[in-house]
Design goal:
The protein is α+β, with helices and mostly antiparallel strands. The protein folds into three domains: 165 residues, FAD/NAD(P)-binding domain; 145 residues, Alpha-Beta Plaits, CATH 3.30.70; 121 residues, Guanine Nucleotide Dissociation Inhibitor, domain 1, CATH 1.10.405.20. It is 30% helix and 23% strand. A seven-stranded mixed β-sheet has the order 6-5-14-15-16-13-17, with helices on one face. A four-stranded parallel β-sheet has the order 2-1-12-18, with helices on one face. A three-stranded antiparallel β-sheet has the order 9-10-11, with no helix packed on it. The model has no long low-confidence stretch (mean pLDDT 96). Bound molecules: flavin-adenine dinucleotide. Pfam families: Amino_oxidase.
Length: 470
Protein backbone atom coordinates (compact mmCIF):
# COMPACT_ATOMS: atom_id res chain seq x y z
CA UNK A 1 0.00 0.00 0.00
CA UNK A 2 2.80 2.46 0.88
CA UNK A 3 3.94 3.64 -2.53
CA UNK A 4 4.32 7.38 -1.88
CA UNK A 5 6.23 9.18 -4.56
CA UNK A 6 4.14 8.01 -7.49
CA UNK A 7 3.03 10.92 -9.58
CA UNK A 8 -0.37 9.81 -10.71
CA UNK A 9 -1.99 12.48 -12.85
CA UNK A 10 -5.53 11.23 -12.75
CA UNK A 11 -8.22 13.44 -11.22
CA UNK A 12 -10.32 11.48 -8.77
CA UNK A 13 -13.62 12.49 -7.20
CA UNK A 14 -14.79 11.02 -3.88
CA UNK A 15 -18.43 11.57 -2.92
CA UNK A 16 -18.87 11.74 0.87
CA UNK A 17 -16.56 12.92 3.66
CA UNK A 18 -17.38 10.15 6.16
CA UNK A 19 -14.96 7.41 7.29
CA UNK A 20 -15.05 5.70 3.87
CA UNK A 21 -14.39 8.90 1.88
CA UNK A 22 -11.70 10.33 4.16
CA UNK A 23 -9.90 6.97 4.40
CA UNK A 24 -10.06 6.48 0.61
CA UNK A 25 -8.40 9.88 0.20
CA UNK A 26 -5.71 8.94 2.73
CA UNK A 27 -4.95 5.67 0.93
CA UNK A 28 -4.86 7.44 -2.45
CA UNK A 29 -2.49 10.07 -1.08
CA UNK A 30 -0.22 7.34 0.33
CA UNK A 31 -0.15 5.81 -3.16
CA UNK A 32 0.91 9.08 -4.72
CA UNK A 33 -2.33 10.48 -6.12
CA UNK A 34 -2.35 14.26 -5.75
CA UNK A 35 -5.50 15.28 -7.59
CA UNK A 36 -8.24 14.01 -5.32
CA UNK A 37 -11.34 16.03 -4.46
CA UNK A 38 -13.76 14.96 -1.72
CA UNK A 39 -17.23 16.49 -1.69
CA UNK A 40 -19.24 16.50 1.53
CA UNK A 41 -22.71 17.99 1.68
CA UNK A 42 -22.59 18.78 5.43
CA UNK A 43 -20.47 21.36 7.24
CA UNK A 44 -18.37 18.69 8.94
CA UNK A 45 -16.30 15.63 8.12
CA UNK A 46 -16.83 12.23 9.73
CA UNK A 47 -20.32 11.33 8.47
CA UNK A 48 -21.97 9.11 11.06
CA UNK A 49 -18.91 9.47 13.29
CA UNK A 50 -20.47 12.59 14.80
CA UNK A 51 -19.28 13.89 18.17
CA UNK A 52 -20.95 17.19 19.14
CA UNK A 53 -19.62 19.09 22.15
CA UNK A 54 -21.70 20.26 25.10
CA UNK A 55 -20.82 22.16 28.24
CA UNK A 56 -21.50 20.52 31.61
CA UNK A 57 -20.26 21.99 34.92
CA UNK A 58 -18.56 24.75 32.89
CA UNK A 59 -16.52 22.26 30.82
CA UNK A 60 -17.00 21.47 27.15
CA UNK A 61 -16.68 17.78 26.21
CA UNK A 62 -17.43 15.56 23.24
CA UNK A 63 -20.46 13.27 23.33
CA UNK A 64 -21.34 10.66 20.71
CA UNK A 65 -24.37 10.83 18.43
CA UNK A 66 -22.92 8.28 16.03
CA UNK A 67 -19.99 5.86 16.21
CA UNK A 68 -18.68 5.30 19.72
CA UNK A 69 -16.18 2.50 19.93
CA UNK A 70 -13.62 0.30 18.30
CA UNK A 71 -11.49 -2.63 19.40
CA UNK A 72 -7.98 -3.93 18.86
CA UNK A 73 -9.30 -5.51 15.66
CA UNK A 74 -9.80 -2.02 14.18
CA UNK A 75 -6.68 -2.39 12.02
CA UNK A 76 -7.66 0.07 9.28
CA UNK A 77 -8.85 2.67 11.80
CA UNK A 78 -5.48 2.24 13.49
CA UNK A 79 -3.77 3.05 10.18
CA UNK A 80 -5.78 6.28 10.11
CA UNK A 81 -4.75 7.04 13.68
CA UNK A 82 -1.09 6.56 12.81
CA UNK A 83 -1.40 8.73 9.69
CA UNK A 84 -3.04 11.49 11.73
CA UNK A 85 -0.85 11.11 14.81
CA UNK A 86 -3.69 10.46 17.24
CA UNK A 87 -4.62 7.70 19.67
CA UNK A 88 -7.75 6.09 21.11
CA UNK A 89 -7.56 8.05 24.34
CA UNK A 90 -11.21 8.16 25.39
CA UNK A 91 -13.08 7.14 28.52
CA UNK A 92 -13.38 3.52 29.58
CA UNK A 93 -16.70 1.86 28.73
CA UNK A 94 -18.84 0.52 31.56
CA UNK A 95 -22.24 -1.21 31.48
CA UNK A 96 -25.04 -2.84 33.46
CA UNK A 97 -28.24 -4.65 32.45
CA UNK A 98 -31.94 -3.93 33.04
CA UNK A 99 -35.25 -5.58 32.21
CA UNK A 100 -38.22 -3.86 30.53
CA UNK A 101 -39.48 -2.83 33.99
CA UNK A 102 -36.26 -0.94 34.54
CA UNK A 103 -34.92 -3.27 37.24
CA UNK A 104 -31.26 -4.18 37.30
CA UNK A 105 -30.60 -7.78 36.20
CA UNK A 106 -27.51 -9.97 36.16
CA UNK A 107 -27.93 -12.25 33.14
CA UNK A 108 -24.28 -13.30 33.10
CA UNK A 109 -23.59 -13.49 36.84
CA UNK A 110 -24.99 -16.62 38.56
CA UNK A 111 -23.70 -15.45 41.95
CA UNK A 112 -25.79 -12.28 41.96
CA UNK A 113 -29.06 -14.06 41.02
CA UNK A 114 -28.63 -17.78 41.59
CA UNK A 115 -30.80 -20.56 40.19
CA UNK A 116 -29.77 -23.98 38.88
CA UNK A 117 -31.62 -23.24 35.64
CA UNK A 118 -29.63 -20.06 35.13
CA UNK A 119 -26.33 -21.72 35.90
CA UNK A 120 -27.11 -24.53 33.44
CA UNK A 121 -28.05 -21.93 30.80
CA UNK A 122 -24.79 -20.06 31.30
CA UNK A 123 -22.74 -23.23 31.06
CA UNK A 124 -24.58 -24.19 27.86
CA UNK A 125 -23.92 -20.74 26.41
CA UNK A 126 -20.24 -20.95 27.30
CA UNK A 127 -19.83 -24.33 25.65
CA UNK A 128 -21.69 -23.15 22.52
CA UNK A 129 -19.44 -20.09 22.41
CA UNK A 130 -16.41 -22.39 22.42
CA UNK A 131 -18.00 -24.48 19.68
CA UNK A 132 -18.69 -21.40 17.57
CA UNK A 133 -15.10 -20.16 17.89
CA UNK A 134 -13.95 -23.60 16.73
CA UNK A 135 -16.30 -23.98 13.76
CA UNK A 136 -15.60 -20.46 12.55
CA UNK A 137 -11.87 -21.30 12.45
CA UNK A 138 -12.39 -24.68 10.76
CA UNK A 139 -15.72 -25.35 9.02
CA UNK A 140 -16.07 -21.64 8.08
CA UNK A 141 -12.40 -20.93 7.48
CA UNK A 142 -12.08 -17.79 5.40
CA UNK A 143 -15.14 -16.10 6.93
CA UNK A 144 -13.20 -13.34 8.66
CA UNK A 145 -12.36 -11.12 5.72
CA UNK A 146 -13.59 -7.64 4.98
CA UNK A 147 -16.23 -7.83 2.27
CA UNK A 148 -18.32 -10.59 0.76
CA UNK A 149 -16.81 -11.32 -2.64
CA UNK A 150 -17.21 -15.02 -3.52
CA UNK A 151 -18.94 -16.03 -0.26
CA UNK A 152 -22.25 -16.94 -1.92
CA UNK A 153 -20.33 -19.25 -4.26
CA UNK A 154 -18.24 -20.87 -1.52
CA UNK A 155 -15.06 -18.85 -2.03
CA UNK A 156 -13.27 -16.13 -0.11
CA UNK A 157 -11.13 -13.32 -1.37
CA UNK A 158 -10.21 -10.09 0.37
CA UNK A 159 -8.25 -8.47 3.17
CA UNK A 160 -7.80 -10.61 6.27
CA UNK A 161 -9.02 -9.68 9.75
CA UNK A 162 -6.77 -12.23 11.38
CA UNK A 163 -4.27 -10.54 13.71
CA UNK A 164 -1.15 -12.20 12.28
CA UNK A 165 -1.94 -11.15 8.70
CA UNK A 166 -4.38 -8.30 9.21
CA UNK A 167 -5.15 -6.29 6.05
CA UNK A 168 -3.21 -8.74 3.85
CA UNK A 169 -4.99 -10.13 0.82
CA UNK A 170 -6.01 -13.79 1.15
CA UNK A 171 -8.20 -16.07 -0.94
CA UNK A 172 -9.36 -19.66 -1.06
CA UNK A 173 -12.25 -22.06 -1.56
CA UNK A 174 -14.64 -23.22 1.15
CA UNK A 175 -18.13 -24.36 0.06
CA UNK A 176 -19.40 -24.13 3.68
CA UNK A 177 -19.20 -20.35 3.44
CA UNK A 178 -22.47 -20.43 1.48
CA UNK A 179 -24.19 -20.94 4.88
CA UNK A 180 -23.31 -17.34 5.73
CA UNK A 181 -26.17 -16.19 3.49
CA UNK A 182 -28.65 -17.68 6.00
CA UNK A 183 -30.30 -15.39 8.52
CA UNK A 184 -28.11 -15.45 11.64
CA UNK A 185 -30.73 -17.26 13.79
CA UNK A 186 -30.99 -20.05 11.19
CA UNK A 187 -27.20 -20.23 10.88
CA UNK A 188 -26.96 -20.70 14.67
CA UNK A 189 -29.66 -23.41 14.68
CA UNK A 190 -27.97 -25.24 11.82
CA UNK A 191 -24.74 -25.33 13.82
CA UNK A 192 -26.28 -26.08 17.23
CA UNK A 193 -25.14 -22.78 18.77
CA UNK A 194 -28.50 -21.02 19.27
CA UNK A 195 -27.53 -19.66 22.68
CA UNK A 196 -24.64 -17.54 21.40
CA UNK A 197 -27.25 -15.12 20.06
CA UNK A 198 -27.72 -13.96 23.67
CA UNK A 199 -24.13 -12.70 23.58
CA UNK A 200 -24.04 -11.37 20.02
CA UNK A 201 -27.36 -9.51 20.38
CA UNK A 202 -26.04 -6.65 22.55
CA UNK A 203 -23.33 -5.39 20.21
CA UNK A 204 -25.46 -6.20 17.17
CA UNK A 205 -29.18 -5.51 17.56
CA UNK A 206 -28.90 -2.84 20.25
CA UNK A 207 -26.28 -1.11 18.11
CA UNK A 208 -28.93 -0.82 15.40
CA UNK A 209 -27.75 -3.54 13.03
CA UNK A 210 -31.10 -5.34 12.82
CA UNK A 211 -32.71 -8.50 14.13
CA UNK A 212 -31.23 -11.98 13.75
CA UNK A 213 -34.14 -13.37 11.72
CA UNK A 214 -33.60 -10.85 8.88
CA UNK A 215 -29.84 -10.29 8.62
CA UNK A 216 -27.53 -12.78 6.84
CA UNK A 217 -25.01 -14.40 9.20
CA UNK A 218 -22.20 -13.04 7.00
CA UNK A 219 -22.77 -9.49 8.26
CA UNK A 220 -22.99 -10.58 11.90
CA UNK A 221 -19.86 -12.74 11.84
CA UNK A 222 -17.74 -10.42 9.73
CA UNK A 223 -18.42 -7.50 12.09
CA UNK A 224 -18.38 -9.54 15.29
CA UNK A 225 -15.72 -12.04 14.32
CA UNK A 226 -14.93 -14.14 17.37
CA UNK A 227 -11.94 -12.00 18.44
CA UNK A 228 -13.93 -8.75 18.28
CA UNK A 229 -16.86 -10.39 20.13
CA UNK A 230 -14.51 -11.52 22.92
CA UNK A 231 -13.06 -8.00 23.19
CA UNK A 232 -16.61 -6.69 23.50
CA UNK A 233 -17.51 -9.22 26.22
CA UNK A 234 -14.35 -8.30 28.14
CA UNK A 235 -15.05 -4.56 27.56
CA UNK A 236 -11.58 -3.99 26.13
CA UNK A 237 -12.88 -1.32 23.81
CA UNK A 238 -11.42 1.77 22.22
CA UNK A 239 -12.99 5.21 22.55
CA UNK A 240 -11.71 8.69 21.65
CA UNK A 241 -11.64 11.65 24.08
CA UNK A 242 -12.72 14.12 21.40
CA UNK A 243 -15.08 11.58 19.89
CA UNK A 244 -14.83 9.36 16.81
CA UNK A 245 -15.35 12.42 14.60
CA UNK A 246 -11.92 13.61 15.72
CA UNK A 247 -10.27 10.65 13.90
CA UNK A 248 -11.55 11.85 10.53
CA UNK A 249 -10.93 15.52 11.31
CA UNK A 250 -7.34 14.68 12.19
CA UNK A 251 -6.86 12.65 8.98
CA UNK A 252 -8.50 15.43 6.97
CA UNK A 253 -6.00 17.95 8.35
CA UNK A 254 -3.18 15.81 6.89
CA UNK A 255 -4.70 15.51 3.43
CA UNK A 256 -3.11 17.49 0.59
CA UNK A 257 -6.64 18.26 -0.57
CA UNK A 258 -8.97 18.46 2.44
CA UNK A 259 -12.69 17.78 2.15
CA UNK A 260 -14.85 20.43 0.43
CA UNK A 261 -17.55 21.00 3.04
CA UNK A 262 -21.08 22.22 2.32
CA UNK A 263 -20.69 20.83 -1.19
CA UNK A 264 -23.39 18.43 -2.30
CA UNK A 265 -23.05 16.27 -5.37
CA UNK A 266 -26.29 16.77 -7.27
CA UNK A 267 -25.52 15.16 -10.62
CA UNK A 268 -23.14 12.54 -12.03
CA UNK A 269 -22.85 11.97 -15.77
CA UNK A 270 -20.62 9.35 -17.39
CA UNK A 271 -20.85 9.69 -21.17
CA UNK A 272 -18.75 7.53 -23.53
CA UNK A 273 -15.73 9.89 -23.57
CA UNK A 274 -14.16 8.12 -20.56
CA UNK A 275 -14.65 11.09 -18.22
CA UNK A 276 -16.91 11.55 -15.22
CA UNK A 277 -18.81 14.85 -14.96
CA UNK A 278 -19.74 15.73 -11.39
CA UNK A 279 -22.05 18.65 -10.65
CA UNK A 280 -21.86 20.07 -7.15
CA UNK A 281 -23.95 22.65 -5.36
CA UNK A 282 -22.09 25.00 -3.04
CA UNK A 283 -23.39 28.27 -1.56
CA UNK A 284 -26.49 28.02 -3.74
CA UNK A 285 -24.59 27.81 -7.03
CA UNK A 286 -23.84 24.79 -9.17
CA UNK A 287 -20.71 23.94 -11.11
CA UNK A 288 -19.57 20.88 -13.03
CA UNK A 289 -16.10 19.39 -12.59
CA UNK A 290 -14.48 16.79 -14.86
CA UNK A 291 -12.75 13.72 -13.41
CA UNK A 292 -11.07 10.56 -14.62
CA UNK A 293 -12.48 8.36 -11.88
CA UNK A 294 -15.18 8.42 -9.22
CA UNK A 295 -15.41 6.73 -5.80
CA UNK A 296 -18.90 6.68 -4.28
CA UNK A 297 -19.00 6.30 -0.50
CA UNK A 298 -22.57 7.51 -0.01
CA UNK A 299 -25.59 5.19 -0.02
CA UNK A 300 -25.70 3.43 -3.38
CA UNK A 301 -29.50 3.44 -3.44
CA UNK A 302 -29.34 7.25 -3.14
CA UNK A 303 -26.82 7.35 -6.02
CA UNK A 304 -29.72 6.30 -8.26
CA UNK A 305 -31.47 9.60 -7.52
CA UNK A 306 -28.74 11.91 -8.87
CA UNK A 307 -26.61 9.85 -11.24
CA UNK A 308 -27.04 8.52 -14.76
CA UNK A 309 -27.38 5.02 -13.33
CA UNK A 310 -27.52 2.19 -15.85
CA UNK A 311 -29.67 -0.92 -15.71
CA UNK A 312 -27.10 -3.01 -13.77
CA UNK A 313 -26.72 -0.33 -11.12
CA UNK A 314 -30.45 0.12 -10.92
CA UNK A 315 -31.13 -3.62 -10.57
CA UNK A 316 -28.56 -4.04 -7.81
CA UNK A 317 -29.03 -0.86 -5.83
CA UNK A 318 -32.81 -1.11 -5.56
CA UNK A 319 -32.24 -4.34 -3.59
CA UNK A 320 -30.43 -2.53 -0.75
CA UNK A 321 -32.21 -2.43 2.61
CA UNK A 322 -31.24 -0.34 5.61
CA UNK A 323 -32.13 -0.01 9.28
CA UNK A 324 -33.90 2.96 10.84
CA UNK A 325 -31.87 3.69 13.92
CA UNK A 326 -32.96 6.54 16.18
CA UNK A 327 -30.88 8.16 18.89
CA UNK A 328 -30.98 11.23 21.06
CA UNK A 329 -28.66 12.85 23.56
CA UNK A 330 -30.50 13.97 26.68
CA UNK A 331 -29.99 15.52 30.09
CA UNK A 332 -31.84 14.21 33.14
CA UNK A 333 -33.45 15.83 36.17
CA UNK A 334 -30.84 16.80 38.82
CA UNK A 335 -29.54 13.74 40.71
CA UNK A 336 -31.77 11.49 38.60
CA UNK A 337 -29.61 10.46 35.63
CA UNK A 338 -27.77 7.19 34.93
CA UNK A 339 -24.24 6.79 36.28
CA UNK A 340 -23.25 3.93 33.96
CA UNK A 341 -24.36 2.69 30.50
CA UNK A 342 -27.21 0.18 30.36
CA UNK A 343 -28.58 -2.55 28.09
CA UNK A 344 -32.30 -3.39 28.14
CA UNK A 345 -32.31 -6.92 26.71
CA UNK A 346 -36.12 -7.30 26.78
CA UNK A 347 -36.34 -4.49 24.22
CA UNK A 348 -34.07 -6.18 21.66
CA UNK A 349 -36.92 -8.12 20.01
CA UNK A 350 -38.88 -7.24 16.84
CA UNK A 351 -42.08 -6.98 18.95
CA UNK A 352 -40.49 -4.30 21.16
CA UNK A 353 -39.07 -2.29 18.24
CA UNK A 354 -39.22 1.43 18.93
CA UNK A 355 -38.22 0.94 22.59
CA UNK A 356 -34.89 2.01 24.08
CA UNK A 357 -32.40 -0.86 23.81
CA UNK A 358 -29.28 0.77 25.16
CA UNK A 359 -28.09 4.05 26.65
CA UNK A 360 -24.53 5.34 26.75
CA UNK A 361 -23.11 7.13 29.80
CA UNK A 362 -19.76 8.47 28.59
CA UNK A 363 -18.10 10.39 31.39
CA UNK A 364 -17.79 8.53 34.71
CA UNK A 365 -16.71 11.62 36.68
CA UNK A 366 -19.87 13.53 35.72
CA UNK A 367 -21.90 10.79 37.51
CA UNK A 368 -25.65 11.53 37.12
CA UNK A 369 -24.98 14.91 35.50
CA UNK A 370 -23.68 13.30 32.34
CA UNK A 371 -25.87 13.69 29.25
CA UNK A 372 -26.55 10.22 27.81
CA UNK A 373 -27.31 8.96 24.32
CA UNK A 374 -30.31 6.62 24.02
CA UNK A 375 -30.86 4.26 21.04
CA UNK A 376 -33.77 2.40 19.40
CA UNK A 377 -34.51 0.55 16.17
CA UNK A 378 -37.95 1.24 14.74
CA UNK A 379 -38.12 -1.22 11.84
CA UNK A 380 -38.16 -4.96 11.26
CA UNK A 381 -38.57 -6.75 7.90
CA UNK A 382 -42.22 -7.66 7.27
CA UNK A 383 -43.58 -5.42 10.05
CA UNK A 384 -44.80 -1.85 10.01
CA UNK A 385 -42.29 0.75 11.13
CA UNK A 386 -42.99 2.38 14.48
CA UNK A 387 -43.49 6.09 13.64
CA UNK A 388 -40.55 8.33 14.55
CA UNK A 389 -42.45 10.44 17.14
CA UNK A 390 -43.84 7.35 18.82
CA UNK A 391 -40.30 5.92 18.99
CA UNK A 392 -39.02 9.07 20.72
CA UNK A 393 -41.95 8.85 23.16
CA UNK A 394 -41.30 5.18 23.93
CA UNK A 395 -37.56 5.80 24.43
CA UNK A 396 -38.32 8.69 26.79
CA UNK A 397 -40.81 6.55 28.76
CA UNK A 398 -38.32 3.68 28.94
CA UNK A 399 -35.70 5.95 30.49
CA UNK A 400 -38.26 7.14 33.06
CA UNK A 401 -39.17 3.49 33.82
CA UNK A 402 -35.47 2.87 34.50
CA UNK A 403 -35.62 5.76 36.99
CA UNK A 404 -34.13 8.43 34.72
CA UNK A 405 -36.73 11.08 33.89
CA UNK A 406 -35.51 13.21 31.01
CA UNK A 407 -34.96 16.91 31.44
CA UNK A 408 -34.20 17.87 27.85
CA UNK A 409 -33.35 16.23 24.54
CA UNK A 410 -30.30 18.19 23.41
CA UNK A 411 -30.15 16.67 19.95
CA UNK A 412 -31.87 13.81 18.10
CA UNK A 413 -31.67 12.06 14.74
CA UNK A 414 -32.61 9.07 12.66
CA UNK A 415 -29.86 7.64 10.45
CA UNK A 416 -29.74 5.61 7.28
CA UNK A 417 -28.11 2.69 8.99
CA UNK A 418 -26.48 -0.63 8.21
CA UNK A 419 -27.21 -1.01 4.49
CA UNK A 420 -27.40 -4.71 3.60
CA UNK A 421 -29.14 -7.15 1.28
CA UNK A 422 -31.62 -9.85 2.21
CA UNK A 423 -30.54 -13.48 2.74
CA UNK A 424 -32.08 -14.34 -0.65
CA UNK A 425 -30.22 -11.63 -2.56
CA UNK A 426 -27.03 -12.47 -0.70
CA UNK A 427 -27.33 -16.15 -1.69
CA UNK A 428 -28.05 -15.10 -5.29
CA UNK A 429 -24.61 -13.48 -5.49
CA UNK A 430 -25.41 -9.77 -5.03
CA UNK A 431 -21.84 -9.05 -3.94
CA UNK A 432 -20.23 -10.80 -6.88
CA UNK A 433 -22.42 -8.83 -9.24
CA UNK A 434 -21.41 -5.59 -7.50
CA UNK A 435 -17.74 -6.52 -7.67
CA UNK A 436 -18.04 -7.17 -11.40
CA UNK A 437 -19.18 -3.55 -11.83
CA UNK A 438 -16.14 -2.05 -10.04
CA UNK A 439 -14.24 0.20 -12.42
CA UNK A 440 -16.84 0.24 -15.18
CA UNK A 441 -17.54 3.76 -16.46
CA UNK A 442 -14.71 5.02 -14.22
CA UNK A 443 -16.81 4.26 -11.15
CA UNK A 444 -15.88 2.51 -7.89
CA UNK A 445 -18.32 1.62 -5.12
CA UNK A 446 -17.20 1.94 -1.48
CA UNK A 447 -18.75 2.71 1.90
CA UNK A 448 -20.78 0.71 4.38
CA UNK A 449 -22.54 -1.72 2.04
CA UNK A 450 -19.21 -3.16 0.83
CA UNK A 451 -18.52 -5.03 4.05
CA UNK A 452 -20.41 -3.77 7.10
CA UNK A 453 -21.78 -0.58 8.64
CA UNK A 454 -19.02 0.17 11.10
CA UNK A 455 -15.95 2.40 10.94
CA UNK A 456 -13.46 -0.42 10.59
CA UNK A 457 -15.17 -2.26 7.76
CA UNK A 458 -15.82 0.95 5.81
CA UNK A 459 -12.21 2.16 6.14
CA UNK A 460 -10.84 -1.30 5.29
CA UNK A 461 -13.10 -1.47 2.22
CA UNK A 462 -11.67 1.84 1.01
CA UNK A 463 -8.18 0.40 1.55
CA UNK A 464 -9.14 -2.66 -0.47
CA UNK A 465 -10.58 -0.66 -3.37
CA UNK A 466 -7.63 1.71 -3.55
CA UNK A 467 -5.25 -1.27 -3.27
CA UNK A 468 -6.94 -3.28 -6.02
CA UNK A 469 -7.86 -0.64 -8.56
CA UNK A 470 -5.58 2.38 -8.17
C1 LIG B 1 -25.79 5.89 16.38
C2 LIG B 1 -24.63 5.24 15.69
C3 LIG B 1 -23.74 4.47 16.44
C4 LIG B 1 -22.64 3.85 15.79
N1 LIG B 1 -21.72 3.18 16.55
C5 LIG B 1 -20.59 2.70 15.97
C6 LIG B 1 -19.54 2.19 16.76
O1 LIG B 1 -19.61 2.19 18.00
N2 LIG B 1 -18.44 1.71 16.12
C7 LIG B 1 -18.31 1.75 14.76
O2 LIG B 1 -17.28 1.31 14.23
N3 LIG B 1 -19.28 2.27 13.98
C8 LIG B 1 -20.41 2.75 14.56
N4 LIG B 1 -21.39 3.34 13.79
C9 LIG B 1 -21.33 3.19 12.32
C10 LIG B 1 -20.34 4.12 11.62
O3 LIG B 1 -20.50 5.42 12.05
C11 LIG B 1 -20.62 4.03 10.11
O4 LIG B 1 -20.54 2.70 9.69
C12 LIG B 1 -19.61 4.86 9.31
O5 LIG B 1 -19.71 6.22 9.65
C13 LIG B 1 -19.88 4.68 7.81
O6 LIG B 1 -18.98 5.47 7.08
P1 LIG B 1 -19.29 5.89 5.56
O7 LIG B 1 -18.26 6.86 5.19
O8 LIG B 1 -19.47 4.65 4.75
O9 LIG B 1 -20.75 6.56 5.61
P2 LIG B 1 -21.23 7.89 6.40
O10 LIG B 1 -20.59 7.96 7.75
O11 LIG B 1 -22.71 7.83 6.36
O12 LIG B 1 -20.69 9.06 5.52
C14 LIG B 1 -21.25 9.39 4.28
C15 LIG B 1 -21.09 10.89 4.06
O13 LIG B 1 -21.56 11.23 2.75
C16 LIG B 1 -22.22 12.48 2.81
N5 LIG B 1 -23.11 12.59 1.63
C17 LIG B 1 -24.24 11.89 1.39
N6 LIG B 1 -24.77 12.23 0.19
C18 LIG B 1 -23.93 13.17 -0.33
C19 LIG B 1 -23.93 13.93 -1.55
N7 LIG B 1 -24.88 13.77 -2.48
N8 LIG B 1 -22.91 14.80 -1.76
C20 LIG B 1 -21.91 14.97 -0.84
N9 LIG B 1 -21.89 14.29 0.33
C21 LIG B 1 -22.88 13.39 0.59
C22 LIG B 1 -22.94 12.42 4.13
O14 LIG B 1 -23.30 13.71 4.60
C23 LIG B 1 -21.90 11.73 5.02
O15 LIG B 1 -21.05 12.66 5.66
C24 LIG B 1 -22.47 4.00 14.40
C25 LIG B 1 -23.34 4.82 13.67
C26 LIG B 1 -24.40 5.44 14.31
C27 LIG B 1 -25.33 6.32 13.52
Amino acid sequence: MERAGNDHKERICIIGGGPAGVSAAMYLQKKGYHQVEIYEKLNKVGGKAWSPRFEVNGESRAYEMGAIMGAKTYYAVHELERFAGIDHDGPEMRRMYRNADGQEIFPFDPQKEFSFGKLAGLLRMKSQMKKLVKIMDTKYKGYDLYGHVGVAKGRYSGLSKEESRALHRVSGVNPNLKDLALPFDEFCRKNGVEDVQKIWIAPFTSFGYGFFDEIPAAYVMKYLDTTTAIEFIAMRLWTWKDGTQSIYEAVNRKLENPVHLNTEVVKVERPDDGKVYVTVRQDGTERTEVFDRLIITTPLDHFLTYADADEDEHTLFTKIRHEEYVDFLATFRPNDGPTISGYIFDNMTPERRGHAMVYYHRWKDLTDNCPCSVYALRNHAGDEDVPYDETIRKMTDDMAICGFPLQKRLIEQETYYCPHVTPEDYAAGWYDRLDALQGRRGTYYAGEILSFGDMEDTCASSRDIVGRFF
